[in-house]
Sequence to fold (290 residues):
Amino acid sequence: MNARTHRPLRSALSVLALAGVLAAMAVGCGSPGDGEGGGDSAPSSPPSSARAVVPPEPHVGFDYQIGGAYPPPPGVGAVSRDRTAEPTDGLYNICYVNTFQAQPDATDWWQENHPDLLLRNAGGAPVIDQDWDEALFDISTPAKRERLAEIVGGWIDGCAASGFQAVEADNLDSYERSAGLLTPEHDLAFARLLIDRAHAAGLAIGQKNAAELAQRGRALGFDFAVAEECGQYDECGPYATAFDNRVLVIEYEPAGLARACERWGKTLSVVLRDTDVRPAGETGYVRATC
Fold:
């Protein structure tokens, strides 16, 4: 594992460098707002759904738009957008939900309404993912997992109501940033609740990152995987094996794109994006495929 746990840093320097390297690749321009929004409350029980759960097809053309929606480029058959955005007609739509950590702009809401559901260190301060300034959820007990699943489950239900076909459950690897307070078993136990909620709503659900948990995630019920920088760090194989090539790969460096395309370009869905996943039309937008 690498120090960044395969989640891109929001570094202006890296974005500029990446844009410069890719200037010759004829990518467009754009900007983000990769937020999941505030921590709103959830309904007490999930809605029933007769909709069949359908995962994305292997090697589908893919675009990653969690930083802001824009018309998908030609050749795109599946797109991932923030849960506050609208899906696109005629495409396979994946709803991004930060399921294991709080969005930075929602931390105050959690502190005011559910302070005990934030993971805290020995001094009582929230444990923070320093790369993203996100407070980790405390999923260390069954009771807290159930309470969190009601809130996060409400967001998942909202994805289904908006017309998405799947949900991208971010931060399955939160235990790696928990200073030893969480374990993979805690994350997987919470994931089980989210999988059940998504399937009840008629949504496929994707495991986000944590290559070392790919086989366990698939056995648990995840339908596909979303993998950041698995080409860069040579970790696409575990996802491809576990999910029968139903893997959506996002790279943030040209070298990572080259590696992913060389080994996996004909089997997995691979896209290069700028680290802030800006919408097309804004300065700094970067997008390329194999």
